[in-house]
Amino acid sequence: MNKRLLNGGFSWFVLGIWLFSPLASPVYAKDNQAVISPDQPGPYTIGHITKTVIDHSRADRAIPVDIWYPAHSKIASKGSPAIYSITIPTIVDSTNITLADRPYTFLQFNAPLTQDEKLQPAYENVPAVPGKRFPLIIVSHGFGASSFLMSKISLALASHGFIVVAPNHPGSTILDGSADIPHALALYAQDVPFVIDQMLVQNKSGRDSDNPLRGHINTGKIAVLGHSLGGFAAYSGASGYANADLKITVPADRRIKAIVPVEGAYWGLTTQELSRIKIPALLIGVADIHYGDTTGSGIGNGNSVPWGLLNGYPKYRVDVKKTLHSSFVSLCPYAKFLENDVDVTPITAMYISSQYDDYCSSYQKNGFPYLPDPQAERIAILYSVAFLKQQLQSDAKYGRYLTTAYAQQNQPDVIFYEKRRKAASDNLSQSLAGDDSDLSVDSLDHAQPDVKFKAPKQIPVTGLDLSGVK
Fold it and tell me: Which of the chain's ends, N or C, has fewer CB atoms near its CB within 10 Å?
C-alpha cells in the first residue's frame, strides 16, 4: 500500500466542496423563462445515501457507491447532514504511512475556506422529489482516488435534477491500490455497466421508506462522467472494451446515451473502438499539455485524439488554459482540511503545508501561474451541467452555453470546439490528426488501420505526493 502511495497514486483529494461562483448569474431565454446558470446551484435540494453493490460473477466484488439525488425539499431541509467517509493520512516517516476512513459531515469541515470553496449541503437518506423521474449519471473517479474526487460536479448535477451514482472502484482507491493499470482498466470497464444494472434494480425494488430511488430513475436517460481513469470508463462504456491477455470482453452499453470524459484516459482502447462511439460527447481537459508541468500531466495527451475519432454528434470539446490534470479536483480544499483537522498529526500537517501552501495561495508552480482550482472546477461544472441538461433533459435553452460564441464572450480561459454533424469528408486518417496539427503521439502509427493506445511508463503524481516524506 505504501509503495503505491509513494509511486504516485493519482489523487488523494476526496472531499467534494461546492462552488459558489461570483462571476455567474441567471440568464433568460427568449421566451423570458428564467434559466439558472449551470455553474450555479440548481433548484433542487439534495439527498444522499450510500450503498454497497456486490457482483457475484466477479468473486463477490463489493463496490461501495455514493448517491446524490433531488430530494423532497420540505422534508430534506429538516433532515440530518449527509455523512461521508473522509480519508485521513498519518505520516510518521517515509516507511510508516497509514490511512483510515472515518465518518464526517460537511458541517464539521472547519478549514479556512474561500468563498469559492464553500459547501453545498446534502441531507442523509431523505425522500426524493415525489412523482418525478430523473436521468441517471454515473460519476467515475480516477486511479487511486475515491467517489469524492468530483463531488462538486456530483452535487451540482443533483441540484439540477439528476440522480448521481459515484462508485468507489476497489483496487483503485485511496485505501486499496492493489490493481495495476491493466487490471484497473478492466475493473473500471466492468464496474460501470454493473453499477447501472444495480441502479435499475433499485428503481424497482424495496419500499419507498427504505429506498428513496424507487421509481425515480428515468431508465432511458443514462450518461457516464469520469475524471482520468474514470474518463476511460466513460469511453469504454460507450465503445466496448476487450483485453485478450486478461480474457475480458465488455460490449458497448447501449443504455449510455452521452459521455463526459474529464481529462479522460483512453489507454487500452483502440482507434476502432473509439470510432465506434456514436453518442453525444463532451470532452473537458487541459489546453496546454505541458504548461509549466515537469511531471508530465495531460496524461491522455489532451483531447485531440479522441475528439477526432468519436463519431457521435453533437460533440463538444472544452480545453481550459493554464490547468493541470488535477485542476479539476478539490486539491486545495482537501489540503486545507488535512492541515486543520484535529485528527491529523502535526508532522502530517507540516508536510502538507510545506508542499501546498504556496500553490494553494498563489496557484503558481515551477514559476508558472495556474488557473485557481475552483475556477477550473466551475468551468467543468458549467459545461457538464449544460451538456447533460441539453442531452438528457431535452432542455434546449442550455444549448446557448455550448457554442463558440458563448465561450469567446464569457469564458476567456476556454478554447471551445463544437461539431454538430459528421462532415462528408471525415475519415480515419483525418480524425487521427484531430484539430491540432502539432500533436505528437509516440504510440500512434497512422498507417495501421487499428492502433491500441498504451499507458505511459510512469503515472505522474497529481494528488498528495508523499514521496518527499522524511
Answer: C
Q: 40: domain range? A: 2-433
Exposed, middle or buried, 25 (CB in 10 Å: 0-12/13-18/19+)?
Answer: exposed
Residue 213, exposed/middle/buried by CB under 10 A (0-12, 13-18, 19+)? buried
- 446, pLDDT greater than 70: no
Residue 288 lies in a domain: yes
**Residues 351-406 pLDDT 10s:** 667 666 666 777 777 777 888 888 999 999 999 999 999 999 999 999 999 999 99
Alpha carbons within 13 angstroms on the beta-carbon side of residue 346 total: 0
Question: Would 144 be classed as within a structural domain?
Answer: yes
C-alpha cell at 286: 487541459
Question: Helix, strand or coil for residue 102?
Answer: strand
E-assigned strand segments in 72-172: 83-93, 96-105, 123-124, 134-140, 163-167
Per the CB < 8 A criterion, the answer to whether 127 and 45 are in contact is no
> In this structure, are strands 83-93 and 96-105 parallel, antiparallel, or unpaired?
antiparallel
Residue at 457 is within a domain: no
Count the domains in the chain: 1
SS3 content of the chain, % helix, strand, coil (to 5): 30, 25, 45
Name the maximum alpha-carbon separation found in the chain.
63
CATH assignment at residue 106: 3.40.50.1820
- Domain assignment present for residue 326? The answer is yes
Element (DSSP H or E) covering residue 376:
helix 373-392
Give CA–CA dist 20/37, Å, rounded: 11
CA-closest candidate to residue 67, choices 125, 130, 18, 135: 125
Report DSSP state, residue 287: S
Beta bridge mates, 97: 91
Q: What is the rounded CA–CA span in Å between residue 461 and residue 6?
A: 9
